[in-house]
Every structure is written in C-alpha cells, then in structure tokens.
C-alpha cells in the first residue's frame, strides 16, 4: 500500500514537473516571439493568445460567475439598437400618412428620411470623443434622453418643419447609440459570451424595424393622427433604457483607462458575480498599459495609410460598408411601404402590413446569419449574400418593368379650360403620369379592365384628389371612379413583393452583419478604432447618398431603372468581394494581418491556392 501511494505521489510529481515545463516553454515561446516581431499589434496578439492554461482556467471560472447580470447589461444596452431600428423603420409607414396629411413633395419625403441619417453620421463621429471623455454609460444615458426628446417632438409636430427638427433629434441619438452600444457590450462581456452578446444589438436593430412596421400597421387605421403614435411610441423604450442605466455600472475598462482602479475592480467583481477577478483585472490593466505604449507617434490614420497591409485592410473594410449601402438596403427599409404602393398596392393599410412582412423577413434571416457565420465562413456567406441580393433586385426591377409595359393608356381627355396649361394632360400612359409628382391617374373599372382613364393635376391641398374633374374631392365615390397617386393599377404587384422578400432573405444573413464583423477583425489593435470609425463613416455617408436620392432617381430612371442600377452596383460589389476579401474564419487575430500583405486582387488567388495545398 505504501509503495503504491509512493508511486502515485511520484507520478503526480512527475506530472506537475511536466506541466511546469510546458508553462515555462510557453512563456519562453512568447518572449521569443516578442523579441522577433516588431509591430505593436503582434505583441498584443501574442500576449492574448499564449496565456498559460492556468490563467485560462482561472479566467474561465470567473467569466461564468453571473451570466444573468451580464445578460441584463446586454439587454438594456441593446435597447439602443432597438431604438435605432424602430426610428429608421417606422418612417416607412408613417410617410404614407404624412405625405397625404401634410402634402409632402418628394424632396420633403427624402429630407425627413435622410436628415436622420445625416445627423447620425455627425453624432457618431462626435460620439467617439464623448465616449473617451465621459464614458459609455453617460453616452448611453445621453442617447436615450435624446431619443425621448425626439419622440416627443415628433408626436406633437404641427407642420413639416417641426417634423424635420424631430427627425434630426432622433438621428443624433441613433449616431451616439450605434457606436457606443457595441463597445459597451463587448467591454462588459466575458470572452466566451462576447460574440453572442454583441450580436444581440444587431438582432435588436432588425427587431426594432419589425416592431415599427407592426405599429405602423396598427395605427394606419387612424388616417389623421396615426402617424403621431407611430413616431411618438419610441419614447417608451427610450425611457426604459434611461431608467435602467441609472442603476447600471460603467465599463470597467473605461474606468481603468481613466485611472479609477478601485471602482474598476468593484464593477468587474459585480459583473462577474462577486467571484475572484484578480486574474482578469490584471489582464485588462496590462492590456491597457501596452496599448498606451503601442500608440506610437503620429496620427493613427496617417500610419494606416502609409503601412500597406493596413491600407489594404481599410480599403476592404470601407468597400464592404460602401457596397452594403449601394445595394439599396436602406431604400428598401425606409421606403418599403412606398415601394409596394408604387408597384400597384392601392390600399395604404395593405401596403403597410406587407412592409411588416418584409421587416419580419429581415429579422428572421438575421438570425440565420448568426447561425451560419462560424459554420460557412465570412467570405462564402458574403459572396452568396451579395450575389443573391443582385438577383433579387433584378426580380424587383422586373416587377416594375412588367407593370410599366402593361401600363394603362390615357383614354379620356376632359374638356376643362382650367387644365389647358397643365403638363399632366400631355401624358399618354399611366406610367409617365405617375412619375410626375404633380399628377395622378383617374380611372374607372369594368371588372378588372381599366376604362375612361385620364391624367390629372393633383389638388394643391391634398394628394388624395385631383384638382378638377371626376376625381376632384367629394366626387369620386358618386361617379364610381378611382384616384391613383404615385402608382398605377397593375396585376404584377406580387412580383415586387416577392423581390422584396427575396432581397431581405439574401441580404440579412450576409451583407447585413458581415461588413461590421469583418471590420472588427481585419485591423491590428493599434489601428482598430480608427479603421472602424472610417468604415462606419463611409457607411453613413453612402446611407445618406442613397436615401436622399431614391425618389428623384426613380423619377429620372423610372422605378425599374433605379433597381436595375442597384443590382448592377451589387454585382460590382460581388467582384470586389471575390478579389479582395480573404476568409478569416478560425484564424487568430495575428494571422489575419499577413493576408493583406499582397495586392488586393492577389488575395483571391492566394486564398484559392491555399485551399488546394
């Protein structure tokens, strides 16, 4: 028995010695790499990748301390994403009611949509400075307060100028929230939950868009004040987030950056459920100290542009964000109800509920993307997504093209002296009549056949009636005629709806989240914040460009021409992804930077050859 115990003890001691040798070997390996690798980023990456098993085990035990509190933090943070989605999505249905009640021109419709995006672009840049100065918690409180103020302004607006002010206010909140929420969630999350929790923000954005479309549908039955409820209900989640963050802590990483070590340790211990956080605390502290050393000299953007691998990574990151917007996603989300009405859906309520179906498709397939990203990989998922997006835009354009080719002719010319100077009476088809925002289509029906149709000027007081003739205000029902503004009667509306659903089914899993995911991976540590800020700025700028020009683009190129243009841009994006985007699935961060050591379009051939080695 004694000898057996002696052998057991001897075996345990041998095992411990072997373990110590492994740990010492690991540490020597790290030190050797530090002496060989010159870039600050690689030093940081090796520090993170070659932690000893003892440290990993200890951190793992800490991270599992209190997941419920971490989920609570993620939930209240992601309400900012929900508000982002709600305030960008609710305008789709509200616009159908607003353009009738306030007689909004195409320019004013585009302004009400794009002013929010433009304000978000400005405040997102300012948000970086505010985050560094006041912290993540204060910025989220500020964003929720701005959301609340914007919702109140919109709900009491009595003219389009006040509406514009409210939409601008909401945009300021969106910009701050869009850049602060992911950072806060990432900094408070344990490593094994970080990816899952950060994606909650994306899910809340698409969920907010879906809820907004349902709210649009519910209140579309109130033709005069329904839009006030649509736009004003954003106050509820904004107030909930504000109240929640009064009791939630600041990011421990930000506290450490500001030198508040005592509170940083207390907050970290609270987040992790009160268990020992010494190892994780020291890891964060040492990481921050190394980042200060790694910052180097000179502006970071200049260093990115003059160092070839980071310059190429920046081109790829900004290119992905650009093609995400140029493929028309926010045209579809902002104007989905209007697009459906343009395709021939005559009833406002029906157009709004069909837009809700498209928003649900976006939410559902975003979940699919979360499941696929680590199984299929970033490159394949992005390629399949953008190619499917291009094909879907062709289907959407085909629906409008078929409607245009089957456009009812103008067969009735009223003999009214007041119309002689109107350009509306010169049009021979409903399609050309519809493209003029000052004209509408007045027609009768014999079963499904359009009869006695005419193109008439719109009443200056309301787009719901013609300025004169059979479709003037109060005469339509008695004469059995119909008034169509901004659409033509057609049997091809279902093709447009199919195109919208296919578009979101392909876009949501890949081109929706992948530009953000890839940008979080391809930059070295010293360039990551600046690289992400630049790519996000490109995203917002292209967002403004697309949303501000869609209605005018449709008037110049026709509706099918506009969507064929978006499809062509998506195909151009496909070529860009094929030639420039390497696969990063399963790679450590320090293994990604060398992928950009070659010319961009050589990356594809390098990746393709490596798959056959």
TrEMBL record:
The chain crosses the membrane at residues 68-86, 106-126, 138-156, 168-186, 198-221, 227-248, 313-335, 350-373, 385-404, 492-512, 533-553, 559-581. It catalyses: myo-inositol(out) + H(+)(out) = myo-inositol(in) + H(+)(in). Pfam families: Sugar_tr (PF00083). GO terms for cellular component: apical plasma membrane. Residues 73-585 form the Major facilitator superfamily (MFS) profile domain. It is found in: Cell membrane. It comes from the Eukaryota. GO terms for molecular function: myo-inositol:proton symporter activity. Keywords: Cell membrane, Glycoprotein, Membrane, Phosphoprotein, Transmembrane, Transmembrane helix, Transport. It is a multi-pass membrane protein. InterPro entries: MFS_dom (IPR020846), MFS_sugar_transport-like (IPR005828), MFS_trans_sf (IPR036259), Myo-inositol_Transporter (IPR050814), Sugar/inositol_transpt (IPR003663), Sugar_transporter_CS (IPR005829). The keyword Cell membrane applies. NCBIfam families: SP. Belongs to the major facilitator superfamily. Sugar transporter (TC 2.A.1.1) family. H(+)-myo-inositol cotransporter. Can also transport related stereoisomers. This is Proton myo-inositol cotransporter.
């Amino acid at each position: 028995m004694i000898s057996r115990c002696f052998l057991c003890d001897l075996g345990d001691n041998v095992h411990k010695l072997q373990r110590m040798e492994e740990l010492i070997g690991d540490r020597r390996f790290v030190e050797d790499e530090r002496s060989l690798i010159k870039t600050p980023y690689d030093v940081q990456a090796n520090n993170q990748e070659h932690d000893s098993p003892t440290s990993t085990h200890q951190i793992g035990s800490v991270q599992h301390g209190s997941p419920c509190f971490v989920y609570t933090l993620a939930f209240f943070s992601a309400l900012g994403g929900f508000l982002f989605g709600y305030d960008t999505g609710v305008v789709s249905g509200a616009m159908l009611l607003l353009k009738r009640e306030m007689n909004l021109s195409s320019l004013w419709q585009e302004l009400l949509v794009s002013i929010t995006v433009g304000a978000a672009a400005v405040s997102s840049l300012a948000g970086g400075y505010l985050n560094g100065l006041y912290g993540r918690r204060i910025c989220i409180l500020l964003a929720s307060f701005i959301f609340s103020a914007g919702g109140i302004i919109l709900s009491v607006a009595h003219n389009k100028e006040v509406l514009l002010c409210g939409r601008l206010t909401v945009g300021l909140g969106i910009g701050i929230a869009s850049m602060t929420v992911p950072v806060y969630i990432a900094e408070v999350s344990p490593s094994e939950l970080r990816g899952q929790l950060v994606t909650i923000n994306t899910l809340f954005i698409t969920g907010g868009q879906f809820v907004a479309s349902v709210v649009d549908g519910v209140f579309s039955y109130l033709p005069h004040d329904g839009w006030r409820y649509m736009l004003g209900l954003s106050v509820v989640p904004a107030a909930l987030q504000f109240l929640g963050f009064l009791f939630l802590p600041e990011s421990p990483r930000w506290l450490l950056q500001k030198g508040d070590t005592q509170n940083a340790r207390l907050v970290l211990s609270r987040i992790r459920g009160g268990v020992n956080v010494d190892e994780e605390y020291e890891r964060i502290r040492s990481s921050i100290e190394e980042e200060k050393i790694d910052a180097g000299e000179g502006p970071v953007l200049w260093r990115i542009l003059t160092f070839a691998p980071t310059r190429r990574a920046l081109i790829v990151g900004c290119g992905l964000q650009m093609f995400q917007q140029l493929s028309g996603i926010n045209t579809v989300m902002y104007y989905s109800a209007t697009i459906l009405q343009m395709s021939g859906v005559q009833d406002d309520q029906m157009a709004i509920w069909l837009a809700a179906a498209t928003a649900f498709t976006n939410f559902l397939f975003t979940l699919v993307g979360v499941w696929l990203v680590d199984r299929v990989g970033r490159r394949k998922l992005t390629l399949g997504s953008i190619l499917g997006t291009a094909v879907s835009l062709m289907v959407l354009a085909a629906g409008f093209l078929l409607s245009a080719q089957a456009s009812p002719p103008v067969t009735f010319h009223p003999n009214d002296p007041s119309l002689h100077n109107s350009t509306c009476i010169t049009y021979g088809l409903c399609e050309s009549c519809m493209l003029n925002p000052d004209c509408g289509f007045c027609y009768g029906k014999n079963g499904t056949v359009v009869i006695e149709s005419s193109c008439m000027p719109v009443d200056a007081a309301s787009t719901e009636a013609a300025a004169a003739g059979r479709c003037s205000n109060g005469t339509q029902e008695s004469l059995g005629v119909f008034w169509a503004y901004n659409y033509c009667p057609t049997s091809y509306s279902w093709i447009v709806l199919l195109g919208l659903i296919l578009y979101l089914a392909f876009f949501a899993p890949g081109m929706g989240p992948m530009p953000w995911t890839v940008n979080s991976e391809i930059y070295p540590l010293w360039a990551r914040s600046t690289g992400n800020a630049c790519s996000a700025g490109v995203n917002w700028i292209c967002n403004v460009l697309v949303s501000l020009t869609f209605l005018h683009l449709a008037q110049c190129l026709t509706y099918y021409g506009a969507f064929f243009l978006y499809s062509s841009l998506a195909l151009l994006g496909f070529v860009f992804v094929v030639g420039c985007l390497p696969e990063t699935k399963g790679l450590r961060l320090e293994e990604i930077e060398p992928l950009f050591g070659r010319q961009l379009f050589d990356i594809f051939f390098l990746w393709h050859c490596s798959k056959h080695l």
